[in-house]
Model the fold of this input.
Amino acid sequence: MNIEDPDYADHYLFLDLERYAQFYDRLSESVSCFITKGVAGSSLRGFPINLDAYAYSSMEGTLESIKVTLEIGRINDAFALLRKFYDSVVINVYADLYLRDNFSLEEMVVEKIDSWIRGKEKLPEYRIMSEYIKNSQSLRPIGILLWRDSHYKQIRERCNGHVHYRSFFHAVLNDSRIHNQHRVKLLGQFAYDLRDLLVLHLACAFFLNGAYMTSGDYVDFLDCGQQPEKGSELWVAPWVQEMLDQVVKQSRPDLYQVLKATSEMDLK
Done:
C-alpha cells in the first residue's frame, strides 16, 4: 500500500488530527484569561500568564506537525512526534499538580516551576514526573481508573520503539516509496493511541481546572450590561462538551462519570 491509496490518504486519523488541533487552539485562547497562580511571569515581559494556554498552543502545533508528517508517509517520524505529545501531556499535568500542591500565601512563587519557565532549571525526568502524577492524592478519583493497567506504559513503549529504531521495520516505515501493507493498520493504532492520550490529558486538565470548561456566557451577559442567568457561570462551552463526549465519554465512560460527579461545572 502506498500513501496515495484512498485507504491511507482518506483515513479518519487525518480528520481527528485536524479536529484535535482546532480544539487545543480554541482551548488555549479560552483559558488565557485565567492567571496561573505560583509563577511570577516575569520571563514573559512581566505580564501575568496562563501557563496552560502556552502548553495547549504548543500541543496544537505538535498535532499539526503530526498531520503533515503522516501526509507525506513518514509514519516512523509521526510516532516520534506522538512521544513528544505524550511528554507534553505529562509535563503539563505535572506542572499543574506541582503548583497546586505547593502554592500558598507563604510561597506565592513556586520556585521549581517558575525557574523552569525562566529557563534556569530543568523539570525532573519523565519517570519522576509520571510517578508524581500517579501518586497524586489530588488526582486520586480519576487516577485509580487511569492507572488500573499498563495501557499507557504500552503506548510509551510503542512510541519509544520508533524513536530508538528498535527494529529495522521502524526505519522502513519512514520511506514512503516502499509498498507497505501495514500502513493503514498502523494509522489505526496511531489513532487509538492518540485518542487515549487525549483522554488522559482532558480528564486530568478538566478535573484539576473545572473552570476551563466554562462557556463564557456569564461574562457575555455582563459585557452586554445584563444580569447573568442563574447558574450560567457553570455552563460548559458546547465545543468542550462535544470533545468530552466524543473522546472521554465514548471511550472511557467510567472516567467521564467521575469527572461529571466531581466537577462543579454543568456537564451533561
Remarks:
- DSSP finds 13 helices and no strands in the chain.
- The CA atoms of residues 101 and 138 lie 8 Å apart.
- The chain has one domain: 6-208.
